[in-house]
Automatic annotation (TrEMBL):
It comes from the Bacteria. InterPro entries: Ankyrin_rpt, Ankyrin_rpt-contain_sf. Pfam families: Ank_2. Keywords: ANK repeat, Repeat. This is Ankyrin repeat domain-containing protein. ANK repeats lie at residues 116-144, 146-178, 179-211.
Amino acid sequence: MRTGLRDLARRLRKLRTRLRNRIALRLGIATVAVASAFAPVPAAAQADDAVYFFRAAQVNDAGRIKPLLARGLDPNVREPERGETGMIVALRHDAMDVFALLLAQPKIDLEAQAGNGNTALMMAAFKNNMAAVKALLAKGAQVNRPGWTALHYAAAAGALDIMRLLLDQHAYIDAESPTKVTPLMLAAREGQEEAVKLLLREGADASLRDAGFHIDAAEFAERAEKPWIAKAIRQHVAEQVMSR
């Protein structure tokens, strides 16, 4: 009887040992799985993700971008050629689904600049994308900044409604680029006659000169072979003098 009890006890001890080993093994596997899920993404994988990210941004494929962001890809990552962020690239290619996805990201930087100083708001203004301009302004994008501004780009594109909106948002009408080019000079050079008229009506200073050529807006128009715009600017200036 006692021998039988001792055998039973040994069997129970072996069974408990096996159970403990199995539990430990399973816990070990679970720990490895959890650690793998939260491990940093290797640099090579991040570089590949960035390539896919910009390809998807160009073709408005928000579905391909969502898992990349979920894996931790920075929504402000820059493409190497122009240094543009995904949002700027999306706006350049009218990829509004991607734009909306990136705009909703908590870590998105609205003021991130490309290599040439462009921001998302400036690109949206140049592309005459009113919906994007409104969305960026609602999110807090800066209208005024040192150097080139969204008003410069809207004026160059002849985006009149966006120009009006920016001016309503207190855009500085005589904002100066790094070489002191104003929106009026840019509109004159690009032959945007209605943009020129709008800026003049709103009080743009036609007497200002840039720092490179030392010429005013009318001369910008002449050098760009837009004599009718130069004439309109000078006529406006003359009428202002006469009304004083």
